[in-house]
Protein backbone atom coordinates (compact mmCIF):
# COMPACT_ATOMS: atom_id res chain seq x y z
CA UNK A 1 0.00 0.00 0.00
CA UNK A 2 1.10 3.60 -0.57
CA UNK A 3 2.73 5.24 2.43
CA UNK A 4 2.26 9.03 2.32
CA UNK A 5 5.37 10.92 3.50
CA UNK A 6 3.29 13.60 5.22
CA UNK A 7 -0.29 13.89 6.48
CA UNK A 8 -0.61 17.64 7.15
CA UNK A 9 -2.43 19.55 4.43
CA UNK A 10 -0.58 22.59 3.04
CA UNK A 11 -2.10 26.04 3.52
CA UNK A 12 -3.51 26.01 -0.01
CA UNK A 13 -5.65 22.94 0.69
CA UNK A 14 -8.74 21.93 2.63
CA UNK A 15 -10.61 18.71 3.37
CA UNK A 16 -14.34 18.52 2.73
CA UNK A 17 -17.07 16.31 1.31
CA UNK A 18 -17.86 16.71 -2.38
CA UNK A 19 -21.58 16.39 -3.11
CA UNK A 20 -22.34 14.64 -6.40
CA UNK A 21 -25.32 13.02 -8.11
CA UNK A 22 -23.89 9.64 -7.03
CA UNK A 23 -23.25 10.41 -3.41
CA UNK A 24 -20.80 12.28 -1.21
CA UNK A 25 -17.04 11.76 -1.48
CA UNK A 26 -14.28 12.78 0.94
CA UNK A 27 -11.75 14.95 -0.86
CA UNK A 28 -8.70 17.13 -0.42
CA UNK A 29 -8.77 20.20 -2.62
CA UNK A 30 -6.01 22.75 -3.17
CA UNK A 31 -6.50 25.96 -5.14
CA UNK A 32 -4.15 28.70 -6.32
CA UNK A 33 -4.17 31.85 -4.25
CA UNK A 34 -6.49 34.70 -5.21
CA UNK A 35 -5.20 36.63 -8.18
CA UNK A 36 -2.84 33.86 -9.28
CA UNK A 37 -3.20 32.54 -12.82
CA UNK A 38 -5.26 29.36 -13.22
CA UNK A 39 -3.95 26.74 -15.64
CA UNK A 40 -6.52 24.00 -15.13
CA UNK A 41 -8.02 21.45 -12.76
CA UNK A 42 -6.83 17.94 -11.94
CA UNK A 43 -8.67 15.01 -10.35
CA UNK A 44 -6.47 12.40 -8.62
CA UNK A 45 -7.85 8.87 -8.10
CA UNK A 46 -6.00 6.60 -5.61
CA UNK A 47 -5.18 2.92 -5.82
CA UNK A 48 -6.14 -0.29 -4.02
CA UNK A 49 -6.12 0.24 -0.22
CA UNK A 50 -5.07 3.85 -0.93
CA UNK A 51 -6.73 7.19 -0.32
CA UNK A 52 -6.59 10.91 -1.06
CA UNK A 53 -3.76 11.25 1.48
CA UNK A 54 -1.41 9.50 -0.96
CA UNK A 55 -1.34 12.74 -2.96
CA UNK A 56 -0.82 15.27 -0.16
CA UNK A 57 2.83 15.88 -1.05
CA UNK A 58 1.82 16.81 -4.62
CA UNK A 59 -0.71 19.47 -3.67
CA UNK A 60 1.60 22.41 -2.95
CA UNK A 61 3.85 22.10 -6.03
CA UNK A 62 0.93 21.51 -8.41
CA UNK A 63 -1.20 24.31 -7.01
CA UNK A 64 1.81 26.63 -6.87
CA UNK A 65 2.06 26.15 -10.64
CA UNK A 66 -1.53 27.27 -11.14
CA UNK A 67 -3.61 24.10 -10.90
CA UNK A 68 -6.68 23.39 -8.83
CA UNK A 69 -6.12 19.84 -7.56
CA UNK A 70 -8.71 17.50 -6.07
CA UNK A 71 -7.77 14.11 -4.58
CA UNK A 72 -10.64 11.79 -3.72
CA UNK A 73 -11.49 8.74 -1.62
CA UNK A 74 -13.58 6.44 -3.81
CA UNK A 75 -16.77 4.86 -2.56
CA UNK A 76 -16.13 2.46 0.28
CA UNK A 77 -12.57 3.77 0.60
CA UNK A 78 -11.20 5.33 3.82
CA UNK A 79 -13.46 8.32 4.63
CA UNK A 80 -16.06 7.81 1.88
CA UNK A 81 -18.85 5.43 2.93
CA UNK A 82 -20.18 2.68 0.71
CA UNK A 83 -22.69 -0.17 0.75
CA UNK A 84 -21.97 -3.70 1.97
CA UNK A 85 -22.60 -5.07 -1.51
CA UNK A 86 -19.88 -6.14 -3.93
CA UNK A 87 -21.98 -5.18 -6.97
CA UNK A 88 -21.77 -1.53 -5.90
CA UNK A 89 -18.04 -1.65 -6.66
CA UNK A 90 -18.20 -2.97 -10.21
CA UNK A 91 -15.70 -1.09 -12.36
CA UNK A 92 -18.53 0.44 -14.39
CA UNK A 93 -20.04 1.86 -11.19
CA UNK A 94 -16.71 3.33 -10.06
CA UNK A 95 -16.18 4.86 -13.51
CA UNK A 96 -19.56 6.57 -13.22
CA UNK A 97 -18.45 7.92 -9.84
CA UNK A 98 -15.46 9.57 -11.54
CA UNK A 99 -17.76 11.24 -14.03
CA UNK A 100 -20.01 12.45 -11.22
CA UNK A 101 -17.00 13.90 -9.37
CA UNK A 102 -15.86 15.78 -12.49
CA UNK A 103 -19.38 17.14 -13.04
CA UNK A 104 -19.55 18.32 -9.42
CA UNK A 105 -16.24 20.17 -9.77
CA UNK A 106 -17.86 22.13 -12.64
CA UNK A 107 -14.55 23.37 -13.96
CA UNK A 108 -14.30 22.34 -17.61
CA UNK A 109 -12.31 19.38 -18.95
CA UNK A 110 -10.01 18.13 -16.20
CA UNK A 111 -6.63 16.43 -16.13
CA UNK A 112 -7.39 12.94 -14.82
CA UNK A 113 -4.77 10.92 -12.93
CA UNK A 114 -5.24 7.36 -11.71
CA UNK A 115 -2.75 5.53 -9.52
CA UNK A 116 -2.58 1.71 -9.70
CA UNK A 117 -6.18 0.43 -9.36
CA UNK A 118 -7.21 4.07 -9.82
CA UNK A 119 -5.58 3.92 -13.25
CA UNK A 120 -7.86 1.07 -14.30
CA UNK A 121 -10.94 2.84 -12.93
CA UNK A 122 -9.91 6.11 -14.59
CA UNK A 123 -9.28 4.32 -17.89
CA UNK A 124 -12.82 2.90 -17.72
CA UNK A 125 -14.12 6.43 -17.13
CA UNK A 126 -12.27 7.78 -20.18
CA UNK A 127 -13.54 4.90 -22.34
CA UNK A 128 -17.08 5.53 -21.12
CA UNK A 129 -16.88 9.16 -22.27
CA UNK A 130 -13.65 11.05 -22.94
CA UNK A 131 -15.27 14.48 -23.31
CA UNK A 132 -14.93 15.61 -19.65
CA UNK A 133 -11.18 14.97 -19.66
CA UNK A 134 -8.36 17.14 -20.95
CA UNK A 135 -5.67 14.49 -20.42
CA UNK A 136 -5.14 11.16 -18.69
CA UNK A 137 -2.12 10.23 -16.58
CA UNK A 138 -1.65 6.53 -15.86
CA UNK A 139 0.52 6.22 -12.75
CA UNK A 140 1.97 2.79 -11.88
CA UNK A 141 -0.95 1.09 -13.59
CA UNK A 142 -0.65 -1.41 -16.40
CA UNK A 143 -2.44 -2.56 -19.54
CA UNK A 144 -4.26 -5.50 -17.94
CA UNK A 145 -4.21 -7.64 -14.79
CA UNK A 146 -1.44 -7.38 -12.21
CA UNK A 147 1.55 -9.74 -12.25
CA UNK A 148 1.00 -13.42 -11.39
CA UNK A 149 3.09 -13.15 -8.23
CA UNK A 150 0.92 -10.32 -6.93
CA UNK A 151 -2.23 -12.18 -7.94
CA UNK A 152 -1.25 -14.94 -5.53
CA UNK A 153 -0.85 -12.51 -2.64
CA UNK A 154 -4.06 -10.73 -3.53
CA UNK A 155 -6.01 -14.00 -3.70
CA UNK A 156 -4.97 -14.74 -0.11
CA UNK A 157 -6.14 -11.28 0.97
CA UNK A 158 -9.49 -11.69 -0.78
CA UNK A 159 -9.97 -15.07 0.90
CA UNK A 160 -9.32 -13.50 4.31
CA UNK A 161 -11.64 -10.58 3.62
CA UNK A 162 -14.39 -12.92 2.40
CA UNK A 163 -14.48 -14.45 5.87
CA UNK A 164 -15.46 -11.16 7.53
CA UNK A 165 -19.13 -11.26 8.64
CA UNK A 166 -21.66 -9.09 6.84
CA UNK A 167 -23.04 -7.55 10.04
CA UNK A 168 -21.56 -7.72 13.53
CA UNK A 169 -17.84 -8.15 13.95
CA UNK A 170 -16.82 -6.36 10.78
CA UNK A 171 -14.28 -4.07 12.45
CA UNK A 172 -12.77 -6.89 14.46
CA UNK A 173 -12.56 -8.91 11.25
CA UNK A 174 -10.73 -6.09 9.46
CA UNK A 175 -8.44 -5.77 12.48
CA UNK A 176 -7.59 -9.47 12.32
CA UNK A 177 -6.70 -9.19 8.62
CA UNK A 178 -4.55 -6.14 9.37
CA UNK A 179 -2.63 -8.00 12.05
CA UNK A 180 -2.06 -10.90 9.67
CA UNK A 181 -0.71 -8.50 7.03
CA UNK A 182 1.62 -6.94 9.57
CA UNK A 183 2.98 -10.36 10.45
CA UNK A 184 3.84 -10.93 6.79
CA UNK A 185 5.20 -7.41 6.17
CA UNK A 186 6.25 -6.00 9.56
CA UNK A 187 6.19 -2.19 9.95
CA UNK A 188 9.38 -0.21 10.32
CA UNK A 189 11.10 -0.57 13.68
CA UNK A 190 10.94 2.82 15.38
CA UNK A 191 13.85 1.85 17.58
CA UNK A 192 16.07 1.93 14.50
CA UNK A 193 15.22 5.57 13.82
CA UNK A 194 18.20 7.70 14.81
CA UNK A 195 16.28 10.94 14.71
CA UNK A 196 13.48 11.44 17.27
CA UNK A 197 11.40 13.58 14.89
CA UNK A 198 11.70 11.00 12.12
CA UNK A 199 10.65 8.28 14.55
CA UNK A 200 7.57 10.27 15.55
CA UNK A 201 6.65 10.93 11.92
CA UNK A 202 6.97 7.22 11.16
CA UNK A 203 4.73 6.37 14.11
CA UNK A 204 2.06 8.88 13.02
CA UNK A 205 1.98 7.59 9.45
CA UNK A 206 1.86 3.95 10.62
CA UNK A 207 -1.12 4.74 12.85
CA UNK A 208 -2.81 6.48 9.93
CA UNK A 209 -2.33 3.43 7.70
CA UNK A 210 -4.02 1.32 10.38
CA UNK A 211 -6.99 3.71 10.64
CA UNK A 212 -7.29 3.90 6.87
CA UNK A 213 -7.38 0.14 6.56
CA UNK A 214 -10.18 -0.11 9.13
CA UNK A 215 -12.12 2.56 7.22
CA UNK A 216 -12.32 0.46 4.06
CA UNK A 217 -15.48 -1.48 3.25
CA UNK A 218 -14.47 -5.16 2.86
CA UNK A 219 -16.78 -5.65 -0.12
CA UNK A 220 -15.02 -2.80 -1.90
CA UNK A 221 -11.63 -4.42 -1.39
CA UNK A 222 -12.91 -7.81 -2.52
CA UNK A 223 -14.56 -6.45 -5.68
CA UNK A 224 -11.68 -4.21 -6.71
CA UNK A 225 -9.13 -6.87 -5.80
CA UNK A 226 -10.84 -9.21 -8.25
CA UNK A 227 -10.72 -6.48 -10.88
CA UNK A 228 -6.96 -6.23 -10.45
CA UNK A 229 -6.69 -9.96 -11.06
CA UNK A 230 -8.95 -10.10 -14.14
CA UNK A 231 -8.61 -6.76 -15.97
CA UNK A 232 -8.46 -7.22 -19.76
CA UNK A 233 -6.02 -5.39 -22.01
CA UNK A 234 -7.79 -2.21 -23.18
CA UNK A 235 -4.78 -0.34 -24.55
CA UNK A 236 -6.08 -0.33 -28.13
CA UNK A 237 -9.43 1.07 -26.96
CA UNK A 238 -7.72 3.85 -25.05
CA UNK A 239 -5.45 4.66 -27.99
CA UNK A 240 -8.54 4.97 -30.15
CA UNK A 241 -9.90 7.85 -28.06
CA UNK A 242 -7.07 10.17 -29.10
CA UNK A 243 -6.78 11.29 -25.47
CA UNK A 244 -3.36 12.75 -24.53
CA UNK A 245 -1.87 10.13 -22.19
CA UNK A 246 1.11 10.18 -19.84
CA UNK A 247 2.46 6.94 -18.36
CA UNK A 248 4.41 7.48 -15.11
CA UNK A 249 6.05 4.86 -12.94
CA UNK A 250 9.01 4.32 -10.68
CA UNK A 251 12.13 2.49 -11.78
CA UNK A 252 10.73 -0.75 -10.33
CA UNK A 253 7.17 -1.96 -9.88
CA UNK A 254 5.93 -5.11 -8.17
CA UNK A 255 2.39 -4.94 -9.61
CA UNK A 256 3.20 -4.38 -13.29
CA UNK A 257 6.80 -4.89 -14.56
CA UNK A 258 8.28 -1.63 -15.81
CA UNK A 259 9.06 -3.01 -19.32
CA UNK A 260 5.35 -3.80 -19.62
CA UNK A 261 4.56 -0.17 -18.81
CA UNK A 262 7.11 0.94 -21.41
CA UNK A 263 5.37 -1.18 -24.04
CA UNK A 264 1.96 0.15 -23.03
CA UNK A 265 3.15 3.72 -23.40
CA UNK A 266 4.53 2.93 -26.85
CA UNK A 267 1.23 1.35 -27.88
CA UNK A 268 -0.61 4.46 -26.72
CA UNK A 269 1.82 6.90 -28.29
CA UNK A 270 1.97 8.31 -24.78
CA UNK A 271 4.47 10.45 -22.96
CA UNK A 272 6.59 8.18 -20.73
CA UNK A 273 8.31 9.09 -17.47
CA UNK A 274 10.27 6.88 -15.08
CA UNK A 275 10.78 8.53 -11.71
CA UNK A 276 14.23 7.78 -10.30
CA UNK A 277 14.50 6.17 -6.84
CA UNK A 278 10.78 5.36 -6.85
CA UNK A 279 8.82 2.11 -7.06
CA UNK A 280 5.03 1.61 -7.10
CA UNK A 281 4.08 4.98 -5.56
CA UNK A 282 6.19 7.79 -7.06
CA UNK A 283 3.55 10.26 -5.85
CA UNK A 284 4.51 9.38 -2.26
CA UNK A 285 8.11 8.22 -2.69
CA UNK A 286 9.43 11.05 -4.91
CA UNK A 287 6.70 13.72 -4.92
CA UNK A 288 8.85 16.63 -6.13
CA UNK A 289 10.09 14.78 -9.22
CA UNK A 290 6.60 13.42 -9.83
CA UNK A 291 5.06 16.90 -9.64
CA UNK A 292 7.61 18.21 -12.13
CA UNK A 293 6.78 15.42 -14.55
CA UNK A 294 3.04 16.09 -14.23
CA UNK A 295 3.47 19.80 -14.83
CA UNK A 296 5.65 19.25 -17.88
CA UNK A 297 2.85 17.14 -19.36
CA UNK A 298 -0.16 19.20 -18.30
CA UNK A 299 1.41 22.44 -19.49
CA UNK A 300 1.63 21.05 -23.03
CA UNK A 301 -1.94 19.73 -23.49
Structure report:
The chain has a domain of 200 residues: Alpha/Beta hydrolase fold, catalytic domain (Rossmann fold, 3-Layer(aba) Sandwich). It contains 11 helices and 8 strands. The mean pLDDT is 94. It is globular, with a radius of gyration of 18 Å. Helix 9 links the parallel strand 7 and strand 8. It has 301 residues and is α/β, with parallel strands linked by helices. Strands 1-2-4-3-5-6-7-8 form an 8-stranded mixed β-sheet, with helices on both faces.
**Which structural class do you get from the secondary structure elements?**
alpha/beta
Give the strand order of the largest sheet, numbering strands 1, 2, ... along the chain. 1-2-4-3-5-6-7-8
The CATH homologous superfamily of the domain at 13-145 and 232-298: Alpha/Beta hydrolase fold, catalytic domain
Termini Cα gap: 31 Å
Q: Report the total helices.
A: 11
The profile of the biggest β sheet is:
8 strands, mixed
Instruction: Give the averaged pLDDT, no decimals.
Output: 94
Annotation, overall tally of beta strands: 8
Strand content: 15-25%
Helix content: 40-55%
GO molecular function, one term: hydrolase activity
Protein name: Alpha/beta hydrolase
Keywords: Hydrolase
Domain AB hydrolase-1: 43-293
Question: How do you describe this structure in short?
Answer:
By secondary structure, this protein is an alpha/beta fold.
Amino acid sequence: MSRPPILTLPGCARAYRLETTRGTFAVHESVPSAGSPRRGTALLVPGFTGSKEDFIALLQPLTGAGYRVVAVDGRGQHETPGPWDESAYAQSELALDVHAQVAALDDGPVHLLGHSLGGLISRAAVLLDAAPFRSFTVMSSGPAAISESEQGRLALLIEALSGIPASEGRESGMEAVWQAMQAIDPPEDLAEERDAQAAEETRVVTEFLHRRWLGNVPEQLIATGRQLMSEPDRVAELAGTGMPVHVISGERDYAWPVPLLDAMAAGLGARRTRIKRAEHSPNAEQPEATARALLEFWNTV
